[in-house]
Every structure is written in structure tokens, then in C-alpha cells.
Amino acid sequence: MVAGFFWIAGELLLPGLALLCRNWRVLQGAVTMILALCPALLLESPRWLLATRQPERARKTLQALAEDDCPQDSLLTELEALSEEPPRPRYHSVCEICSSRVIWKNGVILGFAAFIGSGIRHCFTRNLVPHLPHFFSSHLALVGTEAAACLFVCLTAERFGRRAILLLCTVLTGISSLLLLALTQYLLELIVLTLSVVGTAASHAVTMLSIFFASEVLPTVVRGAGLGLVLGANFVGKAAAPITAIPNSRGFFLHHVVFASFAILAVLSIMLLPESQGRSLPQSLQDGESQRRPPLFRRPPREDHLPLLAPHAIPHGYSGLASSTKRMLRSPDPPREM
């Protein structure tokens, strides 16, 4: 989720950079150069290096991260175990995701959710344009809704689970879209504005949480490729927004109907996802295939078949149980009050 705050900080700095450049070509070149230099400052993931059997590179990365401090004992033990065998790196391709069953299903659902969250957003921001005529005010308002959505996800996803919050945000997105699609001309302007703000924040939360959820559900050996597909679906949804900007066309209505229907379909699909809260990250393809969907509503613990004795009075062995029963039978009964 830290990456989401960095992305929002970059969007806040974008208007200042636009004022400095004064030209969209120079602005595009400056942004491209900044994004191209960012990967060079990052280190390779030690978890991915260990999962692909590259202990030497993993050791160097851990030493660089620890800044000449010793890594944890568990990591050292795993590195020593891998070093005993001949280092044979094993890489995995995107085609292995398509040949799987559970991993492919999770990736498709999360990519579909990210596609909907980014594609349907223009249906809500279109109603905000008349209230924010200036570019900088509209941009800052959209960034503010994104920051609120990011903060909401950070406060709730760890407490209630990733799948539950993703389902809630998708439901809010679908309901807001359907209400605006059917009742815009009958609702008050304040209600339309409220639904647009809620839909904008919820759609951004759906996109951000889908990407974050994919980084926890997909196995380490194919996590980079899977995240690339989910992010690609996100940008495809953003590319569909210019269709609605064509003047004197019916593209906006068709765009709104299609994405509102997709939002309802996404609500049903998210129920098939596993829950990653409180679980270790899957390393291999076998770990990713072993993930199962938990029940949507947690069942209360059953209170029947209670033991006859208190938990602290239950002995650990059957011999102790027999001796304690004999002592209870031999003890005199307490006098009864008349």
C-alpha cells in the first residue's frame, strides 16, 4: 500500500511539473525519464531469488538491504540449504499461469476487477466536471478522492480481510453506477454529486486493492508476470475512457451500461477468490494451486458436545482420569441446607 501513497504524491507533484515544462511534449518526456530511472534504483526481490534457486544473488541482495548487518537466521539457514546443491536457476514463464487452474482463475478475476475499476471511473468524474471547471481544481479533487480511498483500504483491509473489502468497494461502485445510469435526471444535484464522489473513490479502491491482492495471491515465481497482466488490464480500462469524450455521440451511454454490467459480474466473481489475510505468501506453483476459497460468512463456533469437567480439571492421561474419578466418588457429599 506504500506504493499507492507514492503514486498519489507523484500525482500531486504533476501540476507543478506541468507549470515548469509549459509544453506537453516536454512534460511527457520528463515523466517518461523519471519512470525509466526508478527501476534502476530498486533491488531484486530476495524472495523471488530464493524461489528460483539463485542463492548467491539472494545473499548479495540481503547484505545490501541489511547494510552490513547479519540477516535473520531463518534466511541464512535457507541460503545454506540451497548452497549445498548445485545452483541451477529455474525460471517460470507466463504460459505456466495459463496452464494452471487456481492461479489462472485468481489472476483473471483480479485483472477483471482492476479493468472495471479504472474503466468505470470516467462515468463518475463526468458529473464532477461542471462543478470543477479549472484543470488544477479538478485534478486536485480527483487526487483527494484517491487519497481517501487509499486511506480507507489501509484501515480496513488488514482488519476485515482483502476479499471482504474488495467485495464491498465493488458493490458500492456497481450501486452508484446503476443509480446514476437510471435516475440521473430524477435525482437532486446534490445526490448526483454525492454518488459520483462515492463511485470515484470506490472505483479507485477496487483498482488499488485488486493490484495489492494480486501481489499476495499469486505465487512468488510468477508474481511479476501476474502483476504485469493485472496492471495491463488496468491500463486497458483507462484507455476506454476517451470513447466517452467524443462529442455528439452515444458512446458514453453504451460505455456506462457495459461497465455497470461488468461491475455486477465482478461482485459474483470476487466471491471465488481466496483470502490472503494472515497467511504466508505462496512460493511455488503448487502453493498457489493449493489455495482454497474460505466461506463468505464466518460460522460461529459450535457450543455443543461440551466436556463434563472444566478444562483445567481434565487430566492429560486416562490413568489420571480414573484416579480423579475415584477420589470424587469417595469424597463425602456436602451437607444440604434445609
From TrEMBL:
One of its GO terms (cellular component) is membrane. It comes from the Eukaryota. The chain crosses the membrane at residues 28-50, 102-120, 140-157, 164-184, 190-214, 226-246, 252-273. Keywords: Membrane, Transmembrane, Transmembrane helix. Residues 281-338 are annotated as: Disordered. Gene3D superfamilies: MFS general substrate transporter like domains. The keyword Cell membrane does not apply. It is found in: Membrane. The keyword Transmembrane helix applies. Pfam families: Sugar_tr. SUPFAM superfamilies: MFS general substrate transporter. It is a multi-pass membrane protein. This is Solute carrier family 22 member 31. Its main location: membrane. GO terms for molecular function: transmembrane transporter activity. InterPro entries: MFS_sugar_transport-like, MFS_trans_sf.
